[in-house]
């Protein structure tokens, strides 16, 4: 029962993140801004493959998506890993964190980051 509820909550969280990214990135502007790269950061007790479903939906919608392999060594260390990934990406970035990944992304202060989800 707990396992089923846990899976349902994870699925709901992923769906809400996907909706939030779509709404956040779909704001029309007078001049077409470049689409952001979506960087997905998993939480504890998971790995980057936990984002596969969301990543495929976002790619299908035309976004560049990077799922970071969060080493789970502490927020500062893990944020440095995410930051190194961001520095390799061109253009604006939207960071998406699930659970502990959300705590990690709040430690990123790169000016390319336009949104935290």
Number of DSSP-assigned strands: 4
Number of domains: 1
Query: N-to-C terminal Cα separation, in Å?
Result: 29 Å
Q: What's the CATH class, please?
A: Alpha Beta
Mean pLDDT: 86
Structure classification: alpha/beta
Element order: H for helix, E for strand: HEHEHEHE
Strand order of the largest sheet: 2-1-3-4
| Radius of gyration over all CA atoms, rounded | 14 Å
Helix count?
4
**Low-pLDDT segments:** none
As a percent range, the share of strand residues is 15-25%
Give the CATH architecture. 3-Layer(aba) Sandwich
The H-level CATH homologous superfamily, spelled out, is: Alpha/Beta hydrolase fold, catalytic domain
Helical coverage, percent range = 40-55%
What would the principal axes of the Cα set say about the shape? Answer: globular
Fill in the CATH topology.
Rossmann fold
Biggest sheet layout: 4 strands, parallel
Outline the structure in words.
The structure is a single chain. The chain has a single domain, classed as Rossmann fold, CATH 3.40.50.1820. A 4-stranded parallel beta sheet has the order 2-1-3-4, with helices on both faces. The longest helix has 24 residues, at 2-25. It is an alpha/beta fold and 117 residues long. The N and C termini lie far apart (29 Å). The radius of gyration is 14 Å and the shape is globular. It contains 4 helices and 4 strands, in the order H-E-H-E-H-E-H-E.
């Amino acid at each position: 029962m707990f396992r089923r509820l846990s899976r349902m909550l994870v699925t709901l969280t992923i769906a809400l993140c996907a909706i939030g990214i779509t709404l956040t990135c779909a704001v029309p502007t007078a001049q077409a801004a470049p689409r952001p790269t979506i960087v997905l950061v998993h939480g504890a007790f998971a790995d980057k493959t936990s984002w596969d479903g969301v990543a495929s939906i976002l790619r299908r919608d035309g976004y560049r998506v990077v799922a970071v392999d969060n080493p789970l060594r502490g927020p500062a260390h893990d944020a440095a890993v995410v930051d190194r990934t961001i520095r390799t990406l061109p253009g604006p970035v939207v960071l998406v964190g699930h659970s502990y990944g959300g705590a990690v992304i709040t430690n990123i202060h790169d000016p390319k980051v336009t949104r935290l989800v």
